[in-house]
Design brief:
Layout: H1 3-36, H2 41-64, H3 73-101, H4 106-128, H5 133-136
C-alpha cells in the first residue's frame, strides 16, 4: 500500500472513531430530547447535531488531522462549522424525508443520515481544511 493510501486509511479509521463518538453523543441527545423532553424531532436533531459537531471538531483537530490549510484557529473552526452546517442541512433533510415520506422511525432515519454525513464531512474537511499548506499553494 502506498504511503498516501496508508495515511488516508489511518485518517479515515481515526475519523470513524471520532465520528462514532460524536454520533453516540448526537444520537443519545436526539433520543433524550425527543422521547423524554418531548421536543420535536427535527429541533432535537439540530441541537444534537451541533453537540456532535463540537465534539467532532475537538477530537479531529487534536487526534485525526495533523496538517492544516489554515493557521488561524477561529477561521479553521468557522470553515469546519460551515461544512458542518451543510452536513446539518443534509442531516435534517434526510431525517425528515426518511421519517415523513419513507415512514421510518426517526432513529432509524438518523442512522442512515449519519452514514451519508460521515462521508460528506470527512472528505469535505480533509480537502478544505486538513491538508498541508504546501499543497494549497500549488
Amino acid at each position: 500500500m502506498s504511503e498516501g493510501k496508508n495515511k488516508l486509511s489511518i485518517q479515515m479509521l481515526k475519523y470513524a472513531l471520532v465520528g462514532g463518538t460524536a454520533f453516540l453523543l448526537d444520537f443519545s441527545m436526539l433520543y433524550v430530547l425527543t422521547d423524554y423532553l418531548h421536543i420535536y424531532y427535527i429541533l432535537s436533531a439540530t441541537a444534537a447535531f451541533i453537540a456532535g459537531l463540537l465534539c467532532n471538531y475537538v477530537l479531529s483537530v487534536y487526534w485525526v488531522f495533523n496538517e492544516r490549510a489554515l493557521s488561524n484557529k477561529l477561521a479553521e473552526f468557522l470553515v469546519f462549522s460551515s461544512i458542518g452546517v451543510i452536513g446539518l442541512l443534509l442531516n435534517d433533510g434526510l431525517i425528515w424525508t426518511l421519517t415523513e415520506v419513507g415512514k421510518m422511525h426517526y432513529l432509524a432515519s438518523k442512522v442512515l443520515a449519519a452514514v451519508v454525513i460521515f462521508f460528506w464531512n470527512f472528505f469535505a474537511r480533509r480537502q478544505v481544511l486538513f491538508r498541508s499548506r504546501a499543497k494549497t499553494s500549488k
